[in-house]
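I have been asked to look over a protein record a colleague put together. Alongside the sequence sits a line of tokens, each denoting a local backbone shape. I have pasted the whole thing underneath without changing anything:
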Amino acid sequence: MYIGGISYNYTIPVSNVDRVTPINTDNTIDSASKVKPATECKTCENRKYVDGSNEADVSFKTPGVIKPEEAYAKVSAHERQHVSNAIAKGSKPGAKLISASVALKMSVCPECGRTYVAGGTTTTTISYSTSNPYDKNADEAFGNMLIGNNIDERV
């Protein structure tokens, strides 16, 4: 039995969370550190996402800009594409999907302080059973070779 793990990593940024406004010690808003509106932030406006996996049928194969407020939904949908591919591979004869997990990475924009989804990782494990008679013979021969290699002589 062969167990293969596939991991897809790529960078993709997002946020529906508002920035934190600094306050003074007397609980008044710090007007000196006023946060710029998201439309003025060039970093968020120009942030590009690209998929680094070897799967040709998923989105983000060419770098593209995603608005920070749309990134969570688009990155999640992209990761679901990887999971769907793993389910399809795991449902083929001789294969079984053991696990599929998704992790989204968050980050903070250094220019405007906005939080966003900075990427995602899908990790899958698929077990493949072989029906190749040569593989079965090789496994049997290897097993026979190991018999008697470890002997405990204490009685």
Confidence is low (pLDDT under 50) at residues 1-21. Residues 14 and 68 are 4 Å apart (CA to CA). The first helix runs from residue 42 to 46.
